[in-house]
Amino acid sequence: MVIININDLFISTYNILYIYERNYEMDKRKISIPKSIFRIIRLIITTILIIILLRIFRNFIPFINIDNSSILIPGLILSVLVCTVLFDKVRLSNLGLAFTSKSIFTFIYGLIIASVSVIAIAAYAFFQNIQGTELLITPKWFNADNLSLLVFYLMVAFGEELFFRGYIISTLRSSGLKVFAVLMSSFIFMLIHLVNSETTLLTLIGTFMAGLLLAILYVKFNNLWVCIGFHLAWNFLQDSVIHVPTKGTEVISIVVLAFMTLLASLSFKSSESFETKTT
């Protein structure tokens, strides 16, 4: 049995944030704490206003059939664009979106971590005979529906990571609120998933752990693509490759995510030496 020491987890998280602070290159312009908090509040208000405008705009285009949940992702992306480019007057690359050879590596790394996590949860579900667990790959699996689903989840991953990790963490970190940035982004990430129909206390804890893992990966690589890769694989695999029901797998999901978070935290020293050798 894997025993997760929560105290060690948060101590490791706290320590790695300081280890990587000297390598932090995403937004070197330091701002005050009140100003960083103001920017987060402004981001949330901007998002709400943009989503309202998108809903109104949708009503004037009858041939576009978009439900309310599908408007959320464009709203997140547009709000970050407005706040970053128009208000803050900085480049999106400052949020970790610079696409380089390192970005390809980190994207694949995120895909692998998520795949291992989903396989571990699915193996538990199969072993426990949890109803609804099934392998969805068939001879006709490669089709337009799964391709469109892949594109959809890529948009979801891009929008949510740009909003929660890219803007929120980089803004709070630029004022020195390193640990608070990780915890706050994870908390807001958890809150937005309250709209899910299957939400329970355990699923919320799991979502918070997922947000914590993604935040640590973001800080570790100073790159948003690792988070996008993880987010994409996590959603897509569970929806179109291995269906794992939420009910019955809440605890194992928390354990797997906590283990991955602890592993990512403890790997920061070796990652730092790796970065030193390769840069």
Short characterization:
With 279 residues, the protein is an all-alpha fold. Helices cover 71% and strands 1% of the residues.
Structural category = mainly alpha
Main β-sheet: number of strands, strand sense, barrel status?
Answer: 2 strands, antiparallel
Could you tell me the strand content as a percent range? under 5%
Termini gap: 39 Å
Number of helices: 10
Helix content: over 70%
**Uncertain ranges:** 16-28, 269-279
Morphology call: globular
Rg is 19 Å
Total DSSP E strands: 2
Mean residue pLDDT: 83
- Main sheet strand line-up: 1-2
H-E order: HHHHEHHHHEHH
Report on this structure:
This protein is an all-alpha fold and 279 residues long. 71% of the residues lie in helices and 1% in strands. It has helices at residues 6-19, 33-59, 68-88, 101-127, 144-173, 178-192, 201-221, 225-240, 250-266, 268-278, and strands at residues 134-135, 242-243. A two-stranded antiparallel sheet has the order 1-2. Helix 5 (144-173) packs antiparallel against helix 6 and helix 7 (201-221) runs antiparallel to helix 8 (225-240). The protein is globular. The model is unreliable at 16-28 and 269-279 (pLDDT under 50).
Keywords:
279 residues; globular; 10 helices; disordered C terminus
Ordered list of secondary-structure elements with their pairings:
Blueprint: H1 6-19, H2 33-59, H3 68-88, H4 101-127, E1 134-135, H5 144-173, H6 178-192, H7 201-221, H8 225-240, E2 242-243, H9 250-266, H10 268-278
Antiparallel strand pairs: 1-2
Helix pairs in contact: 1-9, 2-3, 2-5, 3-5, 4-8, 4-9, 5-6, 5-8, 6-7, 7-8, 7-9
